[in-house]
Amino acid sequence: MKSAIYPGSFDPMTLGHLDVIKRASKMFDQLTVSVLDNKAKNALFSVEERVSILKEATKDLPNVSVDSFSGLLVDYARQKDIHVSVRGLRAVTDFEYELQIAQTNRKLSNGALDTVFLTTSLEYAYLSSSSVKEIAAFHGDISQLVPDFVAKLVYKKYNSGSMED
Ligand code: PNS
Questions:
Q1: Separation CA 153–CA 52 (nearest Å)
Q2: Which ligand 1 atom lies nearest to the CA of residue 76?
């Protein structure tokens, strides 16, 4: 069985992430989308909230499961016996950072964890969770950037005065 992990912060999941998830789910028998539990980062959504958003968004994709992890991706992948990590590449500006993570993970895992890059669909090439949060913080329109139910949750955070990432 071909399995892969799609790791990320997903704070919050965007339509760009969902596009990568849908496409990767067709390439692998099992795809685990996993939220990094990074205590050092001041996130808008808790890990539990991010997992719940991803579960709702992927409920119609039977071979996609959602999980969270802390620590090194290579350790998590080894525990799950998964050897492929999926990452989206938006523009050339992503490349250096992504290459560094991919090479580091391959080295750290002694070649056991490889990375597969999917180029994001052009309509999402300049979309990021950070821009979604910034636009929402200034009451801008994020309806083209995240699913409707996520937009509602993001606006709710800012209306209730939560911290911005
Ligand atoms: O959505 P993001 O924030 O770009 O995702 C980055 C992520 C979670 C894939 C990356 O930071 C990661 O895997 N972190 C876990 C720690 C780790 O394994 N670091 C070694 C690779 S540099």
A1: 12
A2: 18
> Whose CA is closest to atom 3 on ligand 1?
9
Whether the model clears a pTM of 0.70, i.e. scores above it, the answer is: yes
- Residue-wise pLDDT for 82-103, tens only, equals 999 999 999 888 899 999 999 9
Residue 73 to residue 7: CA distance in whole angstroms: 8
3-state secondary structure of 14: coil
* DSSP state, residue 121: P
Paired tokens of 102:
């991919």
Within 13 A of 125's CA, how many CA atoms are on the CB side? 8
Give kind and range of the element (H or E) at residue 67: strand 64-69
In the beta sheet, which residues pair with residue 117?
87
Tokens of 163: 């911290």
